[in-house]
Write a structure and sequence with these properties.
- There is one protein chain.
- The chain is α+β, with helices and mostly antiparallel strands and 146 residues long.
- Strands 1, 2, 3 and 4 form a 4-stranded antiparallel beta sheet that branches.
- The protein is globular, with a radius of gyration of 19 Å.
């Protein structure tokens, strides 16, 4: 197995494991590799030191227990961010791109909003300098998993 550092065209960075270099190339060519944050399929490999499974563990490798604790803390932070946004921002549904642009251009009252936008709408907003960021999806609680 090979671990790749990947980045989408919206500059979201993530990692993914593939059985081989040709496996990555084949999946990307078929549109199967997508960003877990925004769903973009415009994904490319980043410069990295490849990690290959089966190699010996070194002192620089993360402790699996510490990694589990860190993951748990990160998932809790994601839940808290999502809860804060849902409690304090106005949900505008699929009108997000239009509303964000109107607020940015001063054509309506300034307020915090969240909603839905296509990757194309997000790209256009960013190109025009309208600040926006994806709202992280809330991962399921461990007890909710199969």
């Amino acid at each position: 197995m090979i671990r790749y550092a990947l980045q989408c065209d919206f500059e979201h960075r993530f990692e993914a494991w593939f059985s081989s270099s040709s496996d990555y190339d084949g999946q990307r060519a078929r549109g199967l590799v997508e960003c877990p944050v925004c769903g973009s399929r415009a994904v490319s490999k980043q410069i990295m030191a490849p990690a290959v499974s089966g190699t010996k563990r070194t002192a620089a490798d993360p402790d699996p227990e510490a990694a589990g604790r860190i993951r748990k803390m990160m998932m809790q932070a994601v839940r808290e961010v999502r809860s804060h946004v849902e409690a304090n921002f106005d949900y505008v549904g699929d009108a997000f791109a239009r509303e964000a642009r109107e607020i940015h251009e001063g054509r309506c009252e300034r307020r915090e909003i969240y909603g839905e936008a296509t990757p194309e709408e997000v790209r256009a907003l960013r190109e025009d300098g309208v600040p926006c960021a994806p709202l992280p999806s809330v991962p399921p609680e461990p007890e909710q998993l199969n």
